[in-house]
Specification:
A: three-stranded mixed β-sheet, 10 helices, 16% strand, elongated, B: 15 helices, 42% helix
């Protein structure tokens, strides 16, 4: 009896010994190469795994104007280099921006932004429709985080007629429209419909009812949104799993204003499509774009987001 | 001779062993245990490739958190904070790993004033909470900052030197043994405490040293540290400053005092220059706080000026003309392991908090 007990005790001891030794050799015998041949994985610490096999391309087009061509160079030096293709739309080429795409016959003023957008989309349709699956429009005071954008877009079907951004509500557009400031992303199909169907009717003199608002004037984001809605292009929901916004239309300072008196926030609170939190909860940890990031601030964001690193203790 | 000795020892050992155990069953038992253990471990390894996708299941099954850490080490899972964490795993050798077990305490004291108590509150909500102890030195208490330590100084920019003296005197009297390092900051400073702790591991906390962004000056050969991003003193440095430099034991260094003290008397003057000069006389050394690539960790001007100053100020520029070590341009100005930023005012503190600690990057794992 005693010897059986002893037998069991020692076998437990043996088991324990192996368990203690195991971490040092057992797990390092995983074949790394085998694992890397698995389909690529987006993984977060507390989210289930999603598998994704191909990588959609993003074409970024940035609207700029001669007065702010210097910002374009800063964008090239910072987040612009992470786009699969980067195009600047302006009204002239100069030494600061020799490769600007000049859009035809548009007076480069704020009032004519809608005209500029139409021309830009037409240009993309004619020359770049096959260069990407997604088309992201930004201003020259926008800072985009492309990795997070890829992650966001991987959850949508690029072959559908869809566009994403920060959604405003509007009585004239039931599905809402995307803010131009923080930028929006269109699928190929969305652009095709806009240029092939929306634009011709817009410019036709015999039009009985406008599909899209004609002429170059007007709020470009509202007009585009209303047009796309009529063309059955869906306005998607780009918030994260905690319902926090990923496209941020106001400066971070305004969005985090919290309990201080920020007049811009009333507008935002009133017209945001989804209920908006203020303060530190406003903005998703997986934010995709920031607005009103001007000139040298672009480099500050670049440093704080990509440059700065942190040493952390493993066992706090 | 030795043979006889060893055989005797062995015999004795054998006798005892046999006396207390029955050799055969215990050895067999051990053996069976080993085999079972190895078998069980192999089972886990074989089933691994299928289950590696679902880490929560693995954690539940095996209960081994260290395993997950190892898999993360292999770079398969790639969610990282915007400030990319865990760099120590690529650059630590066995010595560093030993050193990371030491955890020095840091006391942060923030120089503020009634007009900017709201900033102090923001500091408390953002980086201040990561200090082991946080003190606000002001000239008045109010609802915005009810726990401010009131110093007997005229709260003006000209009297900052007086404020610094009184602050260190207060810390010497009440908190000297509560920390190993004493960090002074302004209320428009943003500090990254994790990187600060890592920096301090390179230095000896019991030595008389101080760290910060070093300026050169003809009167102070070893340089002095800028007050903006803040500077850090060891306990010994604080002790020498208050006991000897300010003449704590004898006469106080007040505006009316004529007692002998090593530091500049009175309250007026550039506080960072004056403390630097004084500490030099007390043989408190200025350390080099730059990183391995000689990039600065304490950043005395706004990030915009640090990165683009060479374009904004092509002619003469104080920072470039007076920095102790050669200043680098553009993104090289600033270490990836930066410890503190200056001129981060009001809500910008929250923006830095969001961009450094909140924002995450989803990157693909190839």
């Amino acid at each position: 009896m005693n010897s059986i007990k002893r037998y069991i005790q020692y076998s437990k001891l043996g088991l324990l010994a192996v368990h203690l030794l195991a971490p040092s050799f057992e797990y390092t015998s995983i074949n790394i190469n085998e694992l890397s041949q698995q389909p690529t994985v987006f993984q977060t610490a507390d989210q289930p795994v999603t598998l994704e096999t191909k990588r959609d391309r993003i074409l970024c087009w940035v609207t700029t104007s001669p007065k702010t061509h210097s910002r374009a160079q800063l964008i090239k030096d910072t987040w612009g280099s992470r786009c699969d293709k980067l195009i600047f739309m302006s009204s002239i080429q100069d030494d600061t921006l020799p490769d600007a795409i000049i859009l035809p016959t548009v007076n480069d003023t704020y009032e004519n932004l809608w005209g500029k957008t139409q021309e830009a989309l037409k240009y993309l349709y004619l020359h770049h429709l096959d260069d990407a699956e997604w088309f992201y429009k930004a201003d020259d005071d926008t800072y985009a985080v492309l990795e997070n954008m890829h992650y966001l877009l991987s959850g949508f079907d690029a072959s559908t007629a869809l566009y994403l951004g920060f959604k405003y509500k509007n009585p004239g557009v039931r599905q809402g429209f995307m803010s131009g400031g923080s930028g929006y992303v269109l699928t190929k199909e969305a652009i095709r419909r806009f240029v092939e169907i929306g634009l011709p009717k817009l410019n036709s003199p015999q039009i009985s009812h406008n599909v899209c608002v004609s002429g170059p004037k007007g709020l470009e984001d509202l007009n585009l949104g209303s047009c796309l809605a009529k063309l059955n292009v869906t306005a998607g929901d780009s918030r994260d799993k905690s319902d926090m916004e990923r496209f941020l239309p106001m400066s971070l300072e305004n969005m985090m204003c919290g309990n201080l008196n920020c007049p811009e926030n009333d507008f935002l609170q009133q017209w945001a499509f989804y209920p908006l939190k203020m303060g530190i909860e406003c903005c998703s940890p997986y934010a995709v774009s920031f607005h009103y990031v001007r000139d040298h601030e672009l480099k500050i964001y670049e440093y704080l987001i990509y440059g700065l690193r942190m040493y952390e203790r493993r066992n706090n | 001779m030795t043979n006889l000795l060893t055989t005797n020892v062995l015999k004795k050992f054998q006798r005892n062993f046999v006396f207390y155990t029955s050799a055969r069953t215990s050895v067999r038992g051990l053996f069976v245990g080993f085999v079972l253990g190895i078998f069980a471990a192999q089972l886990m390894v074989i089933s691994l490739p299928l289950q590696v996708m679902d880490t929560t299941a693995i954690i539940k099954q095996s209960g081994l958190i260290e395993f997950i850490q190892k898999v993360e080490d292999l770079g398969i899972f790639q969610e990282i904070k915007a400030a990319h964490t865990g760099d120590e795993r690529t650059s630590t050798g066995p010595d560093e790993r030993k050193r990371t077990t030491r955890r020095d305490r840091i006391l942060c004291w923030v120089a503020t004033s009634p007009k900017t108590h709201s900033r102090a509150q923001l500091v408390r909500e953002t980086w201040g909470k990561r200090c082991d102890k946080l003190l606000f030195m002001s000239s008045k208490r109010d609802e915005k900052l009810p726990d401010a330590i009131v110093l007997p100084v005229n709260d003006t920019y000209e009297n900052l030197w007086g404020k610094t003296q009184e602050a260190f005197r207060y810390i010497y009297q009440h908190h000297l043994n509560e920390a190993d390092w004493f960090y002074k900051a302004d209320d428009d400073t943003y500090a990254v405490m994790e990187n600060m702790r890592h920096l301090l591991l390179k230095f000896n906390a019991s030595a008389p040293i101080h760290l910060g962004f070093k300026y050169k000056n003809p009167e102070v050969t070893q340089g002095f540290h800028s007050g903006g991003p803040g500077y850090i003193l060891t306990r010994e440095a604080v002790r020498r400053f208050v006991e000897i430099g300010l003449g704590h034991n004898n006469v106080t260094n007040s505006a009316n005092s004529s007692g002998s003290s090593l530091c500049v008397p009175g309250h007026a003057g550039l506080e960072d220059f004056n403390i630097g000069k004084c500490l030099a006389k007390l043989n408190v050394t200025t350390g080099d706080s730059r990183d391995e690539k000689e990039m600065e960790r304490f950043l005395p001007w706004s990030l915009e000026d640090m990165i683009c100053g060479h374009l904004k100020f092509p002619g003469s520029w104080f920072l470039r003309d007076w920095s102790f070590y050669p200043l680098k341009k553009d993104m090289e100005c600033c270490s990836p392991y930066a410890v503190s930023f200056h001129y981060v005012k009001d809500y910008q503190l929250k923006i830095y908090e969001y961009l450094i600690y909140g924002l995450r990057l989803h990157s693909r794992s190839f």
